[in-house]
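Data deposition worksheet. Section B asks for the primary sequence of the deposited chain exactly as it was used as input, without tags or linkers unless they were present during the calculation. Section C holds the resulting structure in token form. Section D is free text for depositor observations; keep each observation to a single sentence. Incomplete worksheets are returned to the depositor.
Section A, Depositor: J.P.
Section B:
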Amino acid sequence: MPLFIHSTAAKTKVLRLAVTVCLLVLGASTAGFAQVADPEAPDQSELLKNSKDRDFILRNFRTMYVDAHGAKYFGSDQVKAALGKNKDFWKLNIRIVDDRRVADAVLKVDYTFAWDYPFELTHQNTTIVLLSGKGEGPFSGPLGAADVARQFVNMAKQWREEKKAQSK
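Section C:
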């Protein structure tokens, strides 16, 4: 049986109620998918939080934030994509995070001249420089991002793979 509402005020109230219910239902159905960073979460690397030993941090950091805002011809997303495509990156057991506050380390990429993209990996809590190097890409974003990823992986390998060798 259809519901007929004759007054405008009553129609407005019913419409507002219907919109509110829809928003509540939509909010509840997407709440499980929202990513909220918690810097105090137990999965943050507690053993690294106050460490000042560069080698220890390099061997044990788990999460990394990528900041390529200073690179002229590419951005952070291109560096993350290049790292993701690098098969050796996954062997390092480093996870890229989108929230700087929960990262153990920050990979910062800049641009100097022509095709030089210097990068620096720093420990988030102490700002100790863990690694530094340079990628190259002749006036090209994709080539520069790929080379930064390749150079970073090649530099980090010695600390990450040595960890495996020591544990055997």
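Section D:
Helices lie at 8-30, 54-60, 76-85, 87-91, 141-167.
The CA atoms of residues 125 and 145 lie 26 Å apart.
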